[in-house]
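pinned: reference chain
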Amino acid sequence: MTKARLFTITILMFGLLVQSVQADVAPGDVIDKSNYQKIKDLVPDYIVTWVKNGDMTMKIGKLNFDPKEFWPQEVKDNWKANIGRYKIDENNGIIDVKTGKPARGIKGLPFPKPDVKDPKFPVMLMYNNIFEEYFIQGNVRGKAPWLSCSRKGFEKKLLLENYSLILDPAKSKQDYAQLSVFREPFSMAGTGTLVLYPLYPLVNGVRFAWAPQLRRVKRLSHRLSGSDVHFGFDAAPDDTWAGGPKTSFEEARYKFLGEKDALIPYFSKDPRMVHWNKKRTWIGIGNASTGHVVKAGYETPGWTGAPWHIPDIIWVKSKVYVIESTSILPNYAYGPCQGWIEKGTFKHVYKRNVDRSGKLWKGSYWVIEAIETPDGKFRMTSGNQVCVNIRRDHGELYPGPCRKGCYRQVMVQDMNEKLFTRAGFIKFSK
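pinned: its structure tokens
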């Protein structure tokens, strides 16, 4: 065999090897630094880098259920009626098509079948997330931690007690309220906020802030400096979703970049069972009711990846919408950010943050959990976030109520609405 022919055969074999490594993933595959090329087009670039560097290992799985069916009954009941019922105006607000006025008292999802040809399509996706988070779960009570990690492991924890209330449009100019108070560490205990949020962007909401050290309530705008870090954590308020300014919809431009295949992180191949309490006044979905615990890498024996990742999950192939969000505010810290949102569930899955020069700054992913009652009459999905500051090589985990001593109650029918007053807020904080 001539040297030229041997060289040609070698090149062909190398090409076949590269092609096999870049082949698509299948359930049962384990993706690590030896075969990271297989996920190259299925996840954002920062996920590929983490797997390549050994920070993350991905177990490819398959769901035994259809997550697109996991909606509370109110969403199902209003699904057809809401198709085409609402639109987005020039202020990125929701308008009732029949009246031409800002919509209030919306039941279910406002955009169950958003039109990809509509220039406001990405904004529709953002509002669906707002409704998933604050409306379709009903009134909510919960306690959950924020965890911060360096390469050496766990650094600190903040424990936050959080209540939310859907407001009656006939009684309030606002649409929902959120009461948040830190319980740990001791130096922050009792510090909190009560926020009354409007749904329409140009309506002014209100924020009350309380700190025990000051022994006074301060009234502020409901709008947050969404790209500014807070409480010593890398993640900013606008990092809690895949979009732009979360409390200032009118101050962002959105662009739909397309639809593609993607790998979506799920906690398990089967839904997790949850139950009504004895009085049927709420459903418990946190550790206090289910015993379920989300462990970080630093708590997992044998884990060799980055300490802030969640090892015990599966990655499932699905479809996502990819959008780009850009703030029009001159002092906003981020440049155009890219978000990936699962098609059908509208769950926010990835967010790629860059600075104003376009350099990669942060990367996030959300692990989805499907839950249902034994009779199948109540279903929904929730998510837990990991956010990594790539500049600092530092990560944060937001495991929701799935930690020892934490809880989350949804569909709460016995909420004490007096807590959402100024006096009730101060009493609750103390």
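why pinned: The helical segments are 3-21, 45-52, 73-77, 79-82, 121-134, 287-290, 422-429. Residues 3-21 form the longest helix (19 residues).
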